[in-house]
């Protein structure tokens, strides 16, 4: 055990240890890797959204000077990537995703062949020489087309173009509740298709290591061990013969936690040619052909009593998952998340839900920061707002009457919620905006004919998903646990490993804080290793805000085990029981004589260099390994977001005047890092609410292939955010932390949409879809004649 110290690191905003390297240009990303004899790959991609391949002629490609090789699916003979759920055919249809398309293409940008050349420019020239012919088929571009009777099938095995169809909950007698309810409100919410847009696009460098008889694959993935598994199976190698290494990574946001086809094809090309091969995705392919997210449709109704308390919730969720299931999460990732967790922070007595994942001729969907929660929170918060209007209640008051206040709380969705600060965060958020004078300013602005609105969103975020929670989805591949190792050398310095991957979350700092505190070490004495399948025993990577909650807990437990061994060695030297010792600032001291202490260096010398002095029950060396899993329904962070907007009648622009976030992620290991996660997440949430949407023309061609076509905000459009921290320590993790990675993105769209609707309130208009474009705002603000009113 560790004594309390006045130099405690956990809970302090210590400077990020990664920054000096990254800010001075000394980071090492996939594209920085240069190897002798390295070749460069690019992909011939489908130019049609749906069709059969009638011919692939790469003869002219191979004649381009500098092109070394060009391969089709028939040349490489690779296994498919297939994600599965352990559900009956009526609920789930698996779809095999070939690494390179064979007989059919299902979206514009699907890889058909790979060209390998001496440099990336020649590889691009080779693409232009490829001759691929298609027999086009009618593309399925949207929900209405996919579900239309007699619609063409994207996959022959998927009847009705439906990959997932589940009805998880149906409270008995729910229809009677709606029939008797004094107030029933409906919403029809749609959200636009988005791109995760990490600063660093996807990429891979593959080579064969003759000495180790091993394929070495450098790639920017959030899940290296899963990439290793899929690569070994597709390539027909033992898993030992594949090593995946993740260098520095410039963002992922979920896009990189699934296994991509291109990294497997790049590895196959390197094996075939016996030379290193690099592939770097360009921004055009990243926008149009990479994994996408978000396109969802919620038809929801809620019943309320006369006092504004919710009585029942009934929802139909349709998620457009694109052409294939992503590995390992499947096309169920979004509909299952929404169906299981939609009641959120509210006490919902009766619940019925149907969740569907449909397939269309668009690039496949992968998890993206928040995974359905921004969408279902938006639907729930719109229901609250609509009920408040119907019942003439204050929008904050109706939330107060419905949020969960007693914990642990078992929801109608059979999930147990651990303690949180749902009501406290709501109250503090409203008080912050009132004390800043925004309600008074709103009243004054309305008197002047200006359109200022105030909106809120309340939500919880399940984090720390363990294997128990993931198993409830019936995934064939069940993520959850994490493994950590902590090792001390003879200098008293410590190396820790984690199965999580940092792509901007400061793991090198926060994990080191946990280890240093547990062992009573200086932070500079701790080094973290991550992202190498040969150095890290096993890990599920980084997604679902799990890094500190799960990975950090494993690190904490491993460090504690190492501390126990240090105490045992010291106790043996003194001839006392280990309980009579404690760790203190790089040494072990006796409790009964605090001035008597042995340094870690001394104890490490004994453990390694004089192991003959160790008792027989203590093994040489100073290494400890721990596994951590959350064996319950997970942990729940929570927050309330409050937004003030002004709508400009002449342009339809939405200007954010103020933004307040009150968040509770349990113990904040590094508050500055948590704030950075909040601000970055809010920026992405605001972007989804006001700017981003990928659309398609009648032929299924994506409209956005550059930032000229795909609008993202700049620093000018993202407001200054005021953040307040509450702290409800978690009882289910070893650190007391929950998760903080996704909350900003979850809360922002609903809060912005509610603020816009509050600004529109005098007009009687309401909006339920995102993105909220200037055109929709201008149209809502423009007075209509009776003849124009539908």
Would you mind describing this structure in some detail?
The chain is 28% helix and 24% strand. The protein has a 7-stranded mixed sheet with strand order 3-7-1-14-11-12-13, with helices on both faces. The chain has a 5-stranded mixed sheet with strand order 9-17-16-15-10, sandwiched between helices. Strands 20-28-29-30 form a 4-stranded mixed sheet, with helices on both faces. With 790 residues, it is an alpha+beta fold. It starts with 18 loop residues before the first helix and ends in a 9-residue tail after the last helix. Its EC number is 1.2.7.4. It holds the Pfam family MoCoBD_2.
What's the layout of helices and strands?
Layout: H1 19-23, E1 39-45, E2 51-57, H2 59-63, E3 67-72, H3 73-76, E4 81-82, E5 96-97, E6 104-105, E7 111-117, H4 120-128, E8 131-136, H5 143-147, E9 162-170, H6 174-180, E10 183-191, E11 203-209, E12 214-219, H7 224-235, E13 242-245, H8 261-273, E14 277-280, H9 283-288, E15 296-304, E16 310-320, H10 333-341, E17 351-358, H11 373-391, H12 395-400, E18 409-410, E19 416-417, H13 422-435, H14 438-447, E20 451-463, H15 467-471, E21 482-488, E22 494-498, H16 507-519, E23 526-530, H17 547-574, E24 581-583, E25 587-590, E26 597-599, H18 600-608, E27 623-628, E28 635-647, E29 654-664, H19 671-690, E30 721-726, H20 743-760, H21 774-781
Parallel strand pairs: 1-14, 12-13, 16-17, 22-23, 29-30
Antiparallel strand pairs: 1-7, 2-6, 2-8, 3-7, 4-5, 9-17, 10-15, 11-12, 11-14, 15-16, 18-19, 20-28, 21-22, 21-27, 24-25, 25-26, 28-29
Helix pairs in contact: 7-8, 11-20, 16-17, 19-20
């Amino acid at each position: 055990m560790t004594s309390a110290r006045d130099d405690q690191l956990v809970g302090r905003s210590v400077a990020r240890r990664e920054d000096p390297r990254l800010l001075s240009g000394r980071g090492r990303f996939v594209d920085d890797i240069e190897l002798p004899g390295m070749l460069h790959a690019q992909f011939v991609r489908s130019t049609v959204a749906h069709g059969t391949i009638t011919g692939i002629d790469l003869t002219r490609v191979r004649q381009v000077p500098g092109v070394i090789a060009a391969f089709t699916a028939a040349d490489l003979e690779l296994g498919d990537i297939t994600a599965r759920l352990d559900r009956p055919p009526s609920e789930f249809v698996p779809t095999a995703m070939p690494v390179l398309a064979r007989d059919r293409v299902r979206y514009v940008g699907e890889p058909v062949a790979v060209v390998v050349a001496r440099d990336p420019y020649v590889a691009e020239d080779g693409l232009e020489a490829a001759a691929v012919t298609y027999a086009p088929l009618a593309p399925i571009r949207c929900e209405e087309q996919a579900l239309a009777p007699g619609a063409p099938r994207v996959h022959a095995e998927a009847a009705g173009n439906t990959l997932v169809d589940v009805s998880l909950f149906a409270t008995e007698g729910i229809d009677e509740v709606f029939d008797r309810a004094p107030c029933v409100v409906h919403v029809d919410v749609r959200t636009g298709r988005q791109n995760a847009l990490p600063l660093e696009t996807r990429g891979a460098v593959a080579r064969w290591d003759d000495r180790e008889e091993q394929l070495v694959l450098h790639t920017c993935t959030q899940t290296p061990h899963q990439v290793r598994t899929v690569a070994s199976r597709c390539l027909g190698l033992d898993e030992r013969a594949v090593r995946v290494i993740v260098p520095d990574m410039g963002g992922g946001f979920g896009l990189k936690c699934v296994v991509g086809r291109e990294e497997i094809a790049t590895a196959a090309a390197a094996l075939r040619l016996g030379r290193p091969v690099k592939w770097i995705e360009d921004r055009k392919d990243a926008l149009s052909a990479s994994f996408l997210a978000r396109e969802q449709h919620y038809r929801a109704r809620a019943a309320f009593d006369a006092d504004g308390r919710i009585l029942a919730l009934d929802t139909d969720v349709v998620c457009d998952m694109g052409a294939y299931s992503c590995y390992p999460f499947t096309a169920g990732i979004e509909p299952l998340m929404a169906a299981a967790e939609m009641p959120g922070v509210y006490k919902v007595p009766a619940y019925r839900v149907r969740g569907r994942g449909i397939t269309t001729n668009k690039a496949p969907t992968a998890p993206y920061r928040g995974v359905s929660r921004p969408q279902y929170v938006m639907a729930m918060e719109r229901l609250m707002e609509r009920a408040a209007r119907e019942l003439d209640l204050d929008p904050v008051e109706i939330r107060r009457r419905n949020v969960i206040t007693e914990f642990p709380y078992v929801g109608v969705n059979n999930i147990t919620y651990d303690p949180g600060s749902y009501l406290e965060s709501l109250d503090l958020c409203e008080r912050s905006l009132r004390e800043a004078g925004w309600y008074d300013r709103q009243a004054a602005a309305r008197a002047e004919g200006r359109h200022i609105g105030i909106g809120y969103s309340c939500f919880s975020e399940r984090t720390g998903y363990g294997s128990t929670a993931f198993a409830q989805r019936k995934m064939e591949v069940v993520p959850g646990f994490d493994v950590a190792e902590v090792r001390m050398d003879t200098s008293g310095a410590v190396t820790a490993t984690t199965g999580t991957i940092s792509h901007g979350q400061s793991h090198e700092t926060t994990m080191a804080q946990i280890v240093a505190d547990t062992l009573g070490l200086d932070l500079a004495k701790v080094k973290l290793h991550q992202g190498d399948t040969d150095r890290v025993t096993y890990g599920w990577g980084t997604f679902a805000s799990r890094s500190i909650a799960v990975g950090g807990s494993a690190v904490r437990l491993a460090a504690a085990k190492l501390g126990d061994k240090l105490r045992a060695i010291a106790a043996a030297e003194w001839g006392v029981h280990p309980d009579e010792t404690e760790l203190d600032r790089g040494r072990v001291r006796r409790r009964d004589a605090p001035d008597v202490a042995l340094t870690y260096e001394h104890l490490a010398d004994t453990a390694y260099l004089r192991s003959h002095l160790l008792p027989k029950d203590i093994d040489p060396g100073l290494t400890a390994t721990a596994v951590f899993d959350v064996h319950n329904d997970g942990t729940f962070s929570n927050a309330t977001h409050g937004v003030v907007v002004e709508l400009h009648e002449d342009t339809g622009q939405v200007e954010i005047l103020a933004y307040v976030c009150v968040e509770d992620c349990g113990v904040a290991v590094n508050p500055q890092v948590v704030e950075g996660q909040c601000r970055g997440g809010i920026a992405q949430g605001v972007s989804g609410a006001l700017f981003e949407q990928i659309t398609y023309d009648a032929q299924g061609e994506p409209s956005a292939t550059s930032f000229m076509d795909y609008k993202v905000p700049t620093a000018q459009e993202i407001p200054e955010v005021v953040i307040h921290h509450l702290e409800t320590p978690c009882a289910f993790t070893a650190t007391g932390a929950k998760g903080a990675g996704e909350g900003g993105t979850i809360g922002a769209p609903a809060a912005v949409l509610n603020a816009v609707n509050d600004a529109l309130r005098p007009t009687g208009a309401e909006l339920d879809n995102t993105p909220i474009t200037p055109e929709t705002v201008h149209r809502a603000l423009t007075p209509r004649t009776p003849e124009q009113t539908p």
